[in-house]
Amino acid sequence: MLTGKQKRFLRSKAHHLNPIFQVGKGGVNDNLIKQIGEALEARELIKVSVLQNCEEDRDDVSVALAKGARAELVQVIGNTIVLYKESRENKQIQLP
């Protein structure tokens, strides 16, 4: 689990990132979770945007993605979800 201080640090790091995944009409599926898991291994911190045509609630989407990719949910702001997962081989972010 992340502390409040760590989440604040990650939020500041994520501020300038652009969403690299979009959750739309299809919702959350295994393929999307697999791709997000791979992106987290490479980058550690990513943004996912929830499109207007997504039928699931964005909070449900955020929980499903975090659980599926075994990642930490840093923040849900508007229709954007920020996820963090420490990389095994490619560690870049040093948490406070």
CA distance, first residue to last residue: 13 Å
Helix percentage range: 25-40%
CATH architecture: 2-Layer Sandwich
What order do the strands of the largest sheet run in, or round the barrel if closed?
1-2-4-3
Number of strands: 4
What's the total helix number?
3
What's the CATH class label? Answer: Alpha Beta
3D shape: globular
How many domain units? 1
Largest sheet entry: 4 strands, mixed
Could you please say which CATH topology applies here? Answer: Translation Initiation Factor IF3
Question: Can you identify the CATH superfamily?
Answer: YhbY-like
Pfam families: CRS1_YhbY
Keywords: RNA-binding
GO molecular function, one term: RNA binding
Protein name: Ribosome assembly RNA-binding protein YhbY
Describe this structure in words.
The protein is globular. Helices cover 38% and strands 21% of the residues. The protein is an alpha+beta fold. It has three helices and four strands. It has a single domain (4-84), classed as YhbY-like (Translation Initiation Factor IF3, 2-Layer Sandwich). The relative contact order is 0.24. The two termini are 13 Å apart. The longest helix has 14 residues, at 30-43. The model has no long low-confidence stretch (mean pLDDT 93). A four-stranded mixed sheet has the order 1-2-4-3, with helices on both faces. The chain has helices at residues 4-14, 30-43, 58-68; strands at 21-23, 45-50, 72-77, 80-84. It comes from Peribacillus asahii. Pfam families: CRS1_YhbY. Keywords: RNA-binding. This is Ribosome assembly RNA-binding protein YhbY. InterPro entries: RNA-binding_CRM, RNA-binding_domain, RNA-binding_YhbY, YhbY-like_sf.
